[in-house]
Amino acid sequence: MRKHSAIIILALALLTAILFVVDIAVGTVNIPLSELLGSLLGEENGATDIVVKIRLPRTIVALLAGVALSVSGLQMQVLFRNPLAGPYVLGVSAGASLGVALFLLGAPLLGITATTFTSLGTAGAAWIGAAMVLVIVVALAHKVKDIMVILILGIMLSSAVGSIVEIMQYFSNEASLKSYVVWTMGSLGDVTMSQLAIVAPIITIGVILSVAAIKPMNMLLFGERYATSMGLNTHRTRILILTSTTLLAGTITAFCGPIGFVGIAAPHIARMMMRSADHCVLLPTTIFVGSIMMLASDIVAKTLTLPINTITALLGIPVVIYIVSRNRTL
Amino acid sequence: MIRIDSLTLAYNERTILDRASLHLKAGELCALVGRNGAGKSTLIRAITSSDGIKLCGEPLAKLSAERLAQSVAIVTTETIRVANLRVRDVVAMGRAPYTNWVGHLQEIDRQIVDEALDMVGMKEFAERDTTTLSDGELQRAMIARAIAQQTPIIVLDEPCAYLDIPTRFEVCRLLADLAHKEGKCILFSTHDIDSALPVCDSFAIIENHTLLKVDAAKASIEIERLFRR
Q: What is the pLDDT of residue B210?
C-alpha cells in the first residue's frame, strides 16, 4: 500500500470514530459530553441507560449497516462489472420484502395471528426471504455460464417479487399496510442488544469472506475469461462473493429495512479518493466511506426525525448521477 | 508444446471442427486463419478448456487450475479499460498465478513486470490509466501481461484486430521475437496474412471443418488455393 493511501485510510478511520461518538451524542435528550463518555467507559450515571441501552446499539447498527452495504455494493460492482450494481441487484431486498410482506400483510389476510410464523418477527421473516433468494441465485450461478444472465435474473426476480408484494398491499388493511410501508423506509433504532449479538457476528463473517475475495476481485476486473486463464476458480469465487453479499445485505435489510444508495455510492467515492483499482486498498476505504455515510445519515435522520432511507437516498443519489454523467467504468 | 490429436468440436448439433490435429513445438509461431465463423476462436478457447488436448506433454484434464495458468497465457479480443487501473497493474496481474492470497508482489515479480513492459515497449506508459490508451497500446499491455505470466505457451485471439497497419506489423514482430528469442510456443488467430507471412513459422488453416497445417513457405499458395474463388 502506498503511503498516501495509508494516510487517507487512517484519516477516514479517525472520522468514523468521531462520527461514532457524535451519533451517540445526538438525540432527543441532551446529554453532556462528560456523562456520555463516562457511561461509554462503563461509569454509572444518569445517562447510562439511554446511552448504553438505546443509543449505543443504534450507532453500532448504523456502523455495521454502512460496512455491510458498502462492501456488498463493491462486490456486486466487480462481479457484474457494472458501475450501477449495488447490494440489492440480486434481489436480496426483494426477497426480504417478500418475507416481511408475507409476515405483515399476508398473515393477517389469511387470518393467521399467533402461530410459529408470527413469532419469527419481521427480521426473521425478512432473513428467510433474503436467504431463499440466495439459494436460488447460487443454484443458478452454478449452471449459468454468463454472469450477465444472473444479473438479469436478479432484476427480473426483484420485479416479480415486487408485483406479488403489491398485490398483497392492495388487499391489505390500513394498519398492516402502514407497518409494511414504515419497514420499507428503514430504521436503525429497532435492533435490540440481543439481536445485535446475532447481527454483528454475521456481518463479521461477511466481511471476512470479502477479504478472502480481494485477489479474486482484482482478477475479475479483467472479466471471467481472463481471470480463469490466470488460475482463478470463477465458480468458487461467484459463490464466495454471493454468499458474502447475502450475509451482509440480507442481514442488514432484515433488521433495518432496505437502505438504499450507500451500497452503490460508497465504492465509487472510495475509487475517486484512492485513484486505484486495487481492492487491497479499495476494500478498507469502501468500509470506512460506507460507515461514514451511514453514521452521518443517522445523525441527520435523528436531528430531523426522518426515516434513514430518505437521507441515504438524498446523500447517495448525487453520487450516482455524477457517475452516470461521467460515464465511469469501474 | 501444444498437441491436438483428432479433436472434434461441435456447437449444439453443428460440427465446427472434425477430427482436427495440430502439433506445435517450442519456439514456433503459428498463425491460425480461416473464414469468419470457421471456428478459430472456438479452437483458441478449446486450448485452455478441452480435455483432449496435451500441453507441455501433459493432458489438459490432469492440469490443476494453477498449473494451467502457469502453462498457457491468453490474450482475447476483449478490451480491458478500467478507471484507475494502470498499465503496470495490468501487467502485474500476469503474476497472479505466482502471488499469495492477496496478490502481494515480491521484488522478483516487480522485476518481471518491468522486463515485460520493456519487451513490448510500454515502459513509458507504465503509470498511464488504461482508459487513456489507444487500442494498440492496450493490446501491447495485454501481451506484456501474458509475458509476465511466464508461460511456455501463449494463445492470442485476433491480436491485430482494431489495429492500424504499422501496429499490426509491430505486434507480429513482437510475437516473433517472443517465439524465436524466448522459445515460447505461440498460436494466434488473424485475418491479416500480410503482417503474419513474414514472421510466422507455420500456418494453421481452417476450411470446411478441417484443420490443415502448412509451412510458412507454402502458406501463401495454400491460402490462395483454398480461399480464392
A: 94
B94–chain A nearest CA distance, Å:
7
- Does any CB of chain A come closer than 8 Å to the CB of residue B187? no
Domains identified in chain B, total number: 1
Is residue A147 less than 8 Å (CB to CB) from chain B? no
Residue A120 corresponds to which cell in the numbers above?
419469527
At a CB cut-off of 8 Å and minimum separation 6, what does B80 contact? Answer: A221, A222, A223, A226, B90, B130, B138, B142
What count of CB pairs under 8 Å joins A to B? 73
Place of cell 416479480: A160
pLDDT tens-place string over residues B136-172:
899 999 999 999 999 999 999 999 988 889 989 999 9
Q: What is the pLDDT of residues A225-238, one digit of tens each?
A: 999 999 999 989 99
Query: Chain B contact for A271, CB < 8 A?
Result: yes
Residue A34 lies in a domain: no
- Contact list, A214 vs chain B (CB under 8 Å): 101-103
Question: Domain residues for B48?
Answer: 2-227
**A133: its cell numbers:** 433468494
- In this complex, do A223 and B82 lie within 8 Å of one another by their Cβ atoms? no
Q: Specify the DSSP class assigned to residue B124.
A: G
The complex's ipTM works out to 0.95
Taking contacts as CB-CB distances below 8 angstroms, the residues of chain B near A277 are 82-86, 89
Tell me the three cell numbers of residue A297.
445519515
Domain residues for the domain of A177 are 3-22+65-326
Number of domains in chain A: 1
A219 touches chain B (CB under 8 A): yes
CATH number, domain of B98, equals 3.40.50.300
Instruction: Look over chain A and give the mean of its residue pLDDT values, rounded to a whole number.
Output: 88
CB B24 within 8 A of CB B38: no
Q: What is the residue-wise DSSP string for A90-106?
A: TSHHHHHHHHHHIIIII
The overall average pLDDT reported for chain B is 93
Look up the CATH number of the domain holding residue A314: 1.10.3470.10
The phi, psi pair for A153, rounded to 5°, reads: -60, -40
